[in-house]
Amino acid sequence: MYCTRKITEGVTWIGGSDRRLALFENLFPIPRGVAYNSYLILDEATAVIDTVDSSISRQFFENISHTLNGRKLDYLIVNHMEPDHCANIDELLLRYPDMKIVGNAKTFTMISQFYGLDLEGRTVTVKEGDSLSLGKHRLSFYFAPMVHWPEVMVAYEETEKILFSADAFGSFGALNGNIFNDELDFDKDWLDDARRYYGNIVGKYGPQVQTALKKLSGLDIAVICPLHGPVWRCDLGYLLEKYDLWSRYEAEEKTVAILYASMYGDTENAANILAAKLAEAGVKSIALHDVSSTHVSDLIGEVFRCSHLVLAAPTYNNGIYPAMLNFLHDCKALNLQNRTIGLIENGTWGPVAGKQMKELLDGLKGMNVLEPVVTLKSALSDASLEQLDNLAGALAASLAE
Fold first, then answer.
1. In 10 A of CB 70, how many CB atoms?
2. What is the pLDDT of residues 293-318, one digit of tens each?
3. Using one digit for the tens of pLDDT, what is the confidence trace for 108-122?
4. Secondary structure of the chain: what % helix, strand, coil (to 5)?
5. Which PROSITE patterns did the record assign (predicted)?
6. Whole-number Å distance between alpha carbons of 349 and 96
7. Is 377 exposed, middle or buried (0-12, 13-18, 19+ CB in 10 A)?
8. Cis ω on the peptide bond leading into residue 228 (within 30° of 0)?
9. Distance between CA 29 and CA 123 in Å, rounded?
10. Could you report how far apart the first and last alpha carbons of the chain are, in Å?
């Protein structure tokens, strides 16, 4: 049975949610599931904006059939060729033999790679700034390469001022009937997942996001329709500001995330004591995470939120504790920049984790490593506690700047 919602009188949401999938891209935990958004425009001509993942194909086709109500489908607009959005292209071609696919040159290269379809006479290739008239509705296309694949484009509907934004402005999380941002408590229930989605999926491509934001800034946008998460029909400035901050690698909050690895509890003890000292100094919204038991995607979400990070790790096989090393490699892969860092190392006979963490951080842009680096030899001593006091003071002073 169909399950749709009207975006406007002429535009309908025809997507759905998957609450069974455990890992997005078989990598990122999604305990709240994920939504796959698709949209259908009814006018003199009809157009579907992107398809959905194969997990909800049945729902998708029932939604299309109900919304078309016997009409033919004229166009499929392919803004993004990732399989969670393009999985139903071949089936749509079979069901709607008059349908044409609208995409750019890179789109069609990828379609041939995924499907090997004979598309002779069934394609419309668009370039930057090209338009497609559906009647009253008119779609203009703007390329957004590497946000977050090279073929990505967005479609702007000029009459109702709707931006179909591909994977930009998306979020993890299934939609529970309320698909619009003004029907939700976004800060409470969605912001963490939106930030985690951005940081892990798009985070590496901050410069490209900045380019896209500048390109789209000249458009009069009233509604943003992403391929995951809520549809935005008000407070667009809030969302655009988040994307501007994240893509410039500027923190949302002046606060501290303490990310620690601990084998037997001594490094964890130092992390807890530091958190208490920072709280006593007036620091709010402190995050404290064990990198061994917290998924790295959640850690990445925190570093996009927090201005200051403390990394605490024991030495392991003359190197950095593996879970911390994995986290630092993710930071490098995602192009993390512009953070103030405190370091805590531990080692019973040869602590070298601090030096090696600093060497990795030196390879990232705009990383300011504070002194002192706190060194524990097995457990906190009076000497290392004094270092911890000094680090707490340096963090508090930096936050006050």
1. 5
2. 999 999 999 999 999 999 999 999 99
3. 999 999 999 989 999
4. 35, 25, 40
5. FLAVODOXIN (PS00201), FLAVODOXIN_LIKE (PS50902)
6. 70
7. middle
8. no
9. 37
10. 57
